[in-house]
Design a protein that fits this description.
heterotrimer, A mainly alpha, B alpha+beta, C alpha+beta, A: mainly alpha, MetI-like fold, C: alpha+beta, SH3 type barrels, 3 domains, six-stranded antiparallel β-sheet, two-stranded antiparallel ribbon, 15 helices, 12% strand, elongated, binds adenosine-5'-triphosphate, binds magnesium ion
């Protein structure tokens, strides 16, 4: 099995041996690193770096054409259009109300989802860090949904939540009324948050568990020798030492949460109406899923999203380097 | 087998000048040892020879051909690393065969060479093992074996014994000497252990701060160190150094005075010296005579009795530290007052820059020094 | 309260059975139900017939009504347990039903039919797996194609990613060269840039290369993952330089050093990246959704989404195909779960 996996590698690598030796002869040993980084750099440049710049171009040009040479320059018009609001707290008063709904939905989604995710994964990590039997099994149980595709996750829950689904069966059995969960705005948002928390909390649990396990045991033993109470031990030892990991989890989950698209899109389609349409879905539909492809507007919105992510990423790097220094 | 010549080699890392104008000639079949304190540039120089590092300036010639721009692989040298650098994912056999495979040698020939080297190094039973499953000494042999199978023009060894325990080191040292004799190969060996240098080398190169301090046969360096640094570095225990001042230069030699001691007249030629010049008097511990009628008095601070020999750490005239190395056992204890003498024919003098003062020609063939080292 | 606090703070290694242990296990069992339950439910349902699916209240296992072939009737008939007027019960097949009266026939005595009141009969059910939920979409709805496309995308993309990422990581870890720092900064700077921020321009680039509706358009844009370069480089930094020097002395070319030395020694990190890549690619949705608009190039995820978005959702097929989609990842996880969880915990990435 193992050797079968290695076979294509070995063939490719050996086939490259002669040409590579020739190249090395030609350009010299000291320039070989360029050969090594080149393929990655080419793809990376073509599909990440260059697009980053083209994105700006799109956001300052108008029209519906995909091709840059057919797009008239409009300056900051797209941004102006996006940001034109009578009252920023009321999305419907904005010219591009979909964008603002997307933002508000995303804010709601992110604040509840991140809170729930951090709280639940912390609780789970603490439980898993106790002296329990079959810890590996339980850890895997909580982690399993992380590996599932968003489409699968959404369908699993859609099946449970649908009108004749098992959840409604329970509710009726208990004497309640069935609810069409995904057709009611508040419920749809709740389940969007719930499902995405369900799908991702295992990952953060794993990180927090690793953080907990890296706290030296002798600190707890010392505290026990001193007769420190459990609560004090938790407050004065566990929390401060886990804090850097908590921050990383917080920022990381924030970054991921802001980018949420797949599972909510498949679960609710952004609906009912636009009740669960998040910002990424807004960008996607503005550019690709409407009759008129408004690439400029989508690019401008993407840049707004990118700036938020950039700030969060810088924050995370700060935290990361701070953690290394300890 | 090959000659190697370095001329005016310099190496600069960024703003640090690590190797300064090194000139060196290594003859075919010679065992050359680079010694010097840590960080003096021994490894760097060796890596420049290997082709792993590019010299900033200067020329490297192998058999008369300048190889500055020839890659490490094509110089036909082999290197044994301090950490052995055995490929952890390959068996001992594969480790030794790897270089030969890269040279597209036929399988049968590779096999013959590997087995021959393994027999020579007595590692035949381990050929199938991974390096992780070997002891330090066995890994060392594999590393050497990997070099041997290549039949290189020059062997380069960078502190190959420094990761072994003391006993094994002595054993491997002897094996290396035997190997060199058997293969007749040119070897360049880096160490900061002067005992290894003395016992193995045909020729020692003493380095300090990237400069060659002295090149010569071991006993020449021992007997005629070019400067205070070499004198202190070669020989164990270290040479005693006492600050001295020139009183006068005469036909019978130089008369010097060590603070607090009676003047000494030593057989040196001091025509170029000015009076009252600051000098350093050097005297090897083996040469200091512990005898009842000695002219100097000292207090014993530590007395080490090793059974066959003894070391006395003394303080002379209240300020100078002098170590005496004597054969046999002695009854002297800590705190005892003893007397000693400094035989003039064994004394060294260094000027303020540390350069050794020349001794008159006759002193060069002094037999006793050689006898002392041999014993 | 005190209990709850103790529960929060106790660590492994305490002694004795404590009330908080009960709470812990209760939480964990709840976790198992919550995390596995929905998936198990889905798998169970995927074996139910269309009729079984709309049954309310639903049953956990896929039951369906037993049917028998009765002499003289073309179609198999549903079997019922019938309470006869004399108080005994007997399995009988239903020929037809008119209002509250059913016309039943005894399979042992096919010539004679009896009329039975509707409430006097109960269906006889048996465990049966509706494999046609799986076979039909695979045979008729292009799902085999989607599956194949997903396999191609996942394996080719992972292969390319592993090669070019490990090459770049080696170059960046073990050589000093001009431009190295700038490349590193760029790679680390883009670690967090998701496709959602640049989907419009990437779409343009892909269009220019004529890769819309081609699997290459899915594979290439994400192949040069910054995450992978970063992960592998960190690992390769720990390989001693002396090994590389030794290989150079052994007349190995730089390429040989890369694949005969660096790659085998970085295998643990490469394996982690391989699993990441398989997971990313198999589960990838947004980008294929944009770039693949023709049915025959759909990947599983896109195909599945299209299928479930149809007006009349054929849930029995959707469920079965969902199981097909989650099966490979689940199997990989089942075999490598320890490796995966430690790999992810140690890299902090997914
Ligand atoms: N790649 C490098 N970049 C900058 N400075 C270096 C580099 N390699 C070596 N040096 C410096 O060059 C000097 C000589 O190093 P070298 O390794 O040759 O010493 P050495 O004599 O082998 O010491 P040791 O006995 O400890 O091995 C040291 O001061 C070291 O810091
Ligand atoms: Mg060194």
């Amino acid at each position: 099995m193992e050797s079968l996996l290695q076979l294509p590698w070995a063939i490719a690598m050996r086939a490259l041996e002669y040409p590579m030796r020739g190249i090395q002869r030609l350009i010299g040993e000291r320039r070989m690193p360029y050969v090594f980084v080149l393929p990655n750099l080419l793809i990376f440049g073509t599909f990440v770096v260059v697009p980053l710049f083209i994105n700006f171009f799109y956001s300052v040009t108008g029209g519906t054409s995909l091709f840059p040479d057919q797009r008239p320059f409009v300056g900051a018009e797209q941004y102006g259009y996006l940001l034109d609001c009578e009252d920023y707290l009321k999305p419907f008063s904005c010219r591009e109300d979909q964008f603002w709904r997307g933002i508000y939905n995303t804010i709601t989604f992110v604040s509840f989802q991140v809170t729930a995710m951090v709280a639940l994964s912390l609780l789970t990590a603490i439980v898993l860090n106790r002296r329990i039997a079959a810890r590996g099994f339980f850890r895997s149980v909580f982690f399993y949904p992380v590996l599932l595709s968003p489409v699968v996750v959404a369908l699993v829950w859609k099946w449970i939540l649908q009108r004749e689904g098992v959840l409604n069966a329970f509710l009726t059995a208990l004497g309640g009324d069935g609810i069409v969960f995904l057709a009611e705005p508040q419920w749809a948002m709740f389940w969007a948050i719930f499902v995405s928390t369900w799908a991702h909390m295992g990952f953060y649990t794993l990180i927090l568990l690793a953080g907990l396990q890296s706290i030296p045991r002798d600190l707890y033993e010392a505290a026990e020798m001193d007769g420190t109470s459990h609560w004090r031990t938790f407050r004065r030892i566990t929390l401060p030492l886990l804090w850097p990991t908590m921050l990383v989890v917080l920022v990381l989950s924030l970054i991921k949460s802001v980018q949420t698209f797949d599972e909510v899109f498949v679960l609710t389609g952004g609906g009912p109406g636009t009740a669960t349409q998040l910002i990424v879905q807004y960008i996607y539909s503005t550019a690709f899923a409407t009759q008129v492809h408004n690439f400029g507007l989508a690019a401008a919105a993407a840049i707004v999203l990118g700036s938020v992510l950039l700030v969060l990423t810088l924050l995370q790097m700060r935290l990361g380097s701070g953690k290394d220094k300890d | 087998m090959a000659n190697l010549r370095l001329s005016k080699i310099n190496k600069v890392f960024g703003s640090v000048h690590v190797v300064h104008d090194v000139d060196l000639e290594v003859l075919d079949g010679e065992f050359v040892v680079f010694v010097g304190p840590s960080g003096c540039g021994k490894s760097t120089l060796l890596r420049i020879i290997a082709g792993l590092e590019k010299a900033t300036s200067g020329a490297i010639e192998i058999d008369g051909e300048v190889v500055n721009d020839v890659s490490a692989a094509e110089r036909g040298l082999a290197m044994v690393f301090q950490s052995y650098a055995l490929y952890p994912h390959m068996s001992v056999y594969q480790n030794m065969a790897f270089g030969l495979e890269n040279n597209r040698m036929p399988r049968a020939q590779i096999d013959a060479r590997v087995r021959e080297a393994a027999r020579m190094l007595r590692i035949e039973e381990y050929l199938g093992r991974k390096p992780k499953a070997l002891s330090g000494g066995q890994r060392q042999r594999v590393a050497i074996g990997r070099a041997i199978v290549r039949k290189p023009r020059v062997f380069l060894l960078d502190e190959p014994l420094s990761n072994l325990d003391a006993e094994l080191r002595v054993l491997m040292r002897a094996e290396l000497a035997g190997l060199h004799a058997r293969l007749g190969a040119t070897m360049i060996y880096v160490t900061h252990d002067q005992v290894e240098a003395m016992t193995l080398a045909d020729k020692i190169v003493v380095l300090r701060d990237g400069r060659v301090e002295q090149v010569g046969r071991p006993l020449d360096l021992y007997n005629h160190p070019a400067n205070r640094f070499v004198a202190g570095f070669i020989g164990s225990p270290k040479m005693n150094f006492l600050p001295a001042r020139l009183l006068r230069a005469g036909a019978d030699g130089l008369t010097v005075e060590v603070a607090g001691l009676a003047p000494l007249t030593l057989p040196f030629d001091g025509a170029v010296l000015s009076p009252r010049q600051e000098l350093t008097l050097g005297m090897r511990p083996t040469h200091v005579r512990h005898q009842a009628d000695g002219e100097f008095a000292g207090t014993v601070e530590v007395s080490e009795q090793l059974g066959g020999e003894s070391y006395l750490y003394c303080r002379v005239a209240g300020e100078h530290r002098v170590v005496i190395h004597a054969q046999g056992q002695s009854e002297v204890r800590r705190g005892d007052e003893i007397r000693m003498s400094f035989p003039p024919q064994h004394a060294y003098l260094f000027d303020a820059e540390g350069t050794a003062l020349p001794r008159p020609g006759a002193a060069r063939q002094t037999a006793p020094a050689a006898v002392d080292v041999a014993s | 309260m005190r209990r709850a606090i103790a529960f929060l703070t106790r660590r492994r290694g305490g002694r004795g059975w404590h009330p908080t242990d009960v709470l812990s296990y209760a939480y964990l069992v709840l976790g198992v139900v919550m995390m596995f339950g929905p998936v198990v439910w889905l798998v169970m349902c995927s074996f139910k017939t269309q009729a079984g699916l709309i049954e309310f209240p639903p049953s956990l296992l896929p039951y369906s009504q037993k049917q028998v072939v009765v002499e003289g009737y073309k179609e198999p008939l549903p079997l019922f347990e019938v309470k006869l007027p004399d108080g005994t019960t007997k399995p009988m097949a239903q020929v037809r039903r008119i209002g509250i009266i059913s016309q039943m026939v005894d399979p042992a005595n096919p010539g004679q039919t009896v009329r039975v009141r509707f409430e006097d009969r109960t269906p006889i059910r048996e465990l049966s797996f509706a494999w046609e939920n799986y076979t039909t979409p695979l045979a008729q709805f292009n799902f085999t194609r989607y599956l194949w496309n997903s396999v191609i995308v996942t394996s080719v993309a992972t292969f390319i990613t592993l090669i070019i990422n490990s090459m770049a990581a080696y170059g960046l870890a073990k050589y000093e060269f001009r431009g190295r720092t700038s490349i590193l900064i760029f790679i680390i700077g883009t670690l967090m840039i998701p496709i959602s921020v640049i989907m419009v321009p990437v779409y343009l680039v892909v269009t220019q290369f004529g890769m819309v509706n081609s699997l290459w358009g899915v594979i290439l844009p994400g192949a040069a993952t910054p995450t992978g370069v970063f992960l592998l480089r960190q690992y390769m930094l720990t390989i001693p330089d002396e090994l590389i020097d030794a290989a150079r002395m052994d007349n190995a070319s730089e390429w040989q050093i890369y694949w005969r030395l660096i790659v085998p020694l970085s295998l643990p990190a490469i394996a982690v990246l391989a699993i990441f890549s398989i997971m990313w690619r198999w589960n990838d949705f947004l980008w294929p959704l944009i770039i693949l608009t023709r049915n025959e190039v759909y990947t599983l995820q896109v195909g599945l989404n299209a299928f479930q978005g149809e007006l009349q959702v054929q849930w029995h097929f959707v469920l079965a195909m969902t199981v097909v989609t989650l099966l490979p990842i689940t199997l990989v996880f089942a075999f490598l779960q320890k490796f995966i969880t430690t790999g992810i915990a140690s890299t902090g990435m997914k």
